[in-house]
């Protein structure tokens, strides 16, 4: 029969392993914007990736708020079977210039609502695609605060902004990082390397991007997530291995003492 200290050691090891897995899991389940970066001044197409974190309810609505302090003149959604998208606009306090013209309003929110019988089920995720631009040149990031609604009425608010030198918040808002432009298209703006052919539908040069680079960025993100998962698994295995070694040593010592 195992001694009391041995049982306690095993319990501690299992608790430690469970806590590692519990802490690692949420890091992979945030609402994100993909790819995570684009060139300033250009047009791009991005996906708002929404994982379902609820084990008993599906996601039936997504609301994405666009920043009006850095307004985007052209915002268009890509049709998604089973979902209806609506776009809300707001009047700007100060007009912005786009291709030499004054723009007095910009999209402030996009809402996707699932049709009857449609949802993002537990264990699944959905991507909501948007073409937008021209991207501002006076900031290095755009923050898109998002609300995720489940069929049971629960609402998860992905609105917290990360601050330098502090841990990532529990419910971070999706962020699109903006990099300096490296090339210019015929419209006087730069074309984001992440743009895809679907972005060309707005007629402003979104199709000048390289779709292959977009796919590569997604692959890199997937590879990074896989590496982190394997790292967590390695930690868990190491903790359990240590516990097993301690138990074996105690049992041998106990046998010698008898």
Give an account of the 3D structure.
With 258 residues, the protein is of the alpha+beta class. The protein has helices spanning 4-24, 211-257; strands at residues 32-34, 37-39, 44-51, 59-65, 74-77, 83-98, 101-114, 125-133, 141-143, 145-150, 155-158, 175-179. The strands form 3 sheets. The chain has a 5-stranded antiparallel sheet, with no helix packed on it. A hairpin with a 2-residue loop joins strand 6 (83-98) and strand 7 (101-114). The longest helix has 47 residues, at 211-257. It is globular. The two termini are 13 Å apart.
Span of the ends, CA to CA: 13 Å
Structural class: alpha+beta
Largest sheet: 5 strands, antiparallel
Annotation field: number of helices: 2
Rg of Cα set = 24 Å
Strand order of the largest sheet: 6-7-4-10-11
Low-pLDDT regions: 12-27, 186-223
Number of separate strands: 12
| pLDDT averaged residue by residue | 76
Global shape: globular
Oligomer: single chain
The proportion of residues forming helix, as a percent range, comes to 25-40%
The fraction of residues assigned to DSSP E strands is: 25-35%
Q: Spell out the helices and strands N to C.
A: HEEEEEEEEEEEEH
């Amino acid at each position: 029969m195992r001694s009391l200290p041995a049982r306690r050691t095993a319990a501690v090891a299992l608790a430690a392993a469970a806590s590692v897995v519990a802490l690692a899991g949420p890091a992979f389940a945030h609402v994100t914007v993909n790819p995570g970066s684009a060139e300033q001044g250009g047009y791009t197409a991005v996906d708002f990736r929404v994982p379902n974190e609820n084990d008993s309810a599906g996601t039936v609505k997504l609301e994405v708020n666009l920043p009006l302090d850095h307004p985007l003149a052209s915002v268009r959604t890509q049709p998604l079977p089973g979902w209806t998208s609506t776009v809300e606009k707001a009047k700007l306090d100060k007009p912005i210039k786009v291709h030499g013209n004054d723009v007095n309003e910009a999209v402030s929110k996009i809402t996707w609502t699932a049709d009857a019988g449609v949802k993002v089920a537990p264990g699944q995720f959905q991507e909501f695609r948007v073409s937008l631009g021209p991207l501002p040149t006076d900031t290095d990031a755009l923050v898109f605060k998002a609300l995720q609604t489940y069929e049971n009425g629960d609402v998860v608010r992905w609105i917290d902004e990360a601050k330098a030198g502090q841990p990532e918040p529990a419910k971070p808002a999706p962020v699109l990082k903006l990099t300096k432009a490296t090339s210019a298209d015929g419209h006087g703006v730069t074309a984001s390397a992440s743009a895809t052919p679907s972005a060309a539908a707005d007629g402003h040069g979104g199709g000048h991007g390289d779709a292959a680079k977009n796919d590569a960025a997604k692959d890199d993100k997937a590879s990074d997530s896989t590496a982190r998962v394997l790292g967590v698994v390695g930690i868990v295995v190491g903790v359990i291995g240590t516990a097993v070694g301690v138990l074996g040593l105690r049992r041998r010592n106990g046998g010698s003492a008898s």
